[in-house]
Amino acid sequence: MVEEIPLSRPDIGRDEERLVLEVLRSGRLSQGPFLEEFEELVADRAGCRHAVGVSSGTDGLLLVLRALGIGPGDEVITTPFSFVASANVILMVGATPRFVDICPSSLNLDPKLIEAAIGPRTKAILAVEALGNPTHMDACAAIAGRHEIPLIEDCCEALGTTHKGRRCGSFGRAGVFGFYPNKQITTGEGGMIVTDDERLADACRSLRNQGRPIPRRGEPGPHGPNGPHGPRGLGTWLAHERLGYNCRLSELNAAVGVAQMRRLDDLIAARQRVARSYMSRLMGREELILPTVDSETAMSWFVFVVRLATGWGREERDRIIQSLHRHDVGAANYFPCIHLQPYFRELFEYAPGAFPIAESVSSRTIALPFSTQMTEREIGFVVQTLELMIEREGMGR
Known about the structure:
Blueprint: H1 14-26, H2 33-46, E1 50-54, H3 57-67, E2 75-78, H4 85-92, E3 96-99, H5 111-117, E4 122-128, H6 137-146, E5 151-154, E6 162-163, E7 166-167, E8 174-178, E9 191-195, H7 198-208, H8 234-237, H9 251-262, H10 264-282, E10 288-289, E11 297-298, E12 304-308, H11 314-326, H12 342-348, H13 356-362, E13 365-368, H14 376-395
Parallel strand pairs: 2-3, 2-4, 4-5, 5-8
Antiparallel strand pairs: 1-9, 6-7, 6-11, 8-9, 10-12, 12-13
Helix pairs in contact: 1-9, 2-9, 3-4, 3-7, 10-14, 11-14
């Protein structure tokens, strides 16, 4: 008998425990050496010069929008098929999300539709690598370059993935990773902004820290004798040059992140193993559409999401998910369309049919249990149960 198989579970080991204990014993719980090391490790993996640790991927996107000066009266082109945070941050700065429908294979923004949506109020493209797939991100970057507007790469689900030889996080003016427990690595809660733009990075560092000024090169750091935490630095600590937020990433979170980054390749390899097993077991099911991965993409695999074939609908999908739950198999619908969330419909009067491809895809998705620790026995049980539920549902059609 297989025990309950959750939708996801973090991979935490002894190194994470050891480094957290080291932080607790050090007495330095914020803005210390582990944050600096974590930022360096993520920047290096993304192929970017700068990284700014923050308290969540959502906060990272918010700070980038603020640092770019985007606000009321501006529009940001983005996708309706994503976790809601990618559109929420646009509302948070007072701008308007301009949704564009998606490509039915990659599930990312359709580049052909992006160009047509750009207008005089368009100030950025916020492109999401949906479910960790970077396909079309190079096309988004090219469009942004032609129109001289920044591309913000929401790579919260794509750490460690490459596309056409480029690393996720390096396509836009800035990229943002997320480290929630279901991601490729986790810090519990946390995120990271990556960029080659030093001024943008410094603005984000200030914004995450209550708008405090950033020490210039050669000046002492926060814990030196003249730094804000030093004996002669209190005046600096209480100086605020801009309206900021408290979005710092703690040393405890950063220590977990350092341990996770040190074994990122192993974590990715384990996720790839699970994805390959699902693919090989499910590829013969005509009722399912499996993830489409470009031949020039090396996926690090955030989740494993299948969808029911055309002709199946939301009600059938929902019954299959409920049946999986009854058999102790975690499953979910990734993602409900953002524009049909209640408050978006109230704000912008969206109705079903506004973005037909996103809505069609969203109504048929099933996220299956996915984590580094899944055994072949567990994968087999999930697949058998899913196949049985599909066959039962099909008999009633």
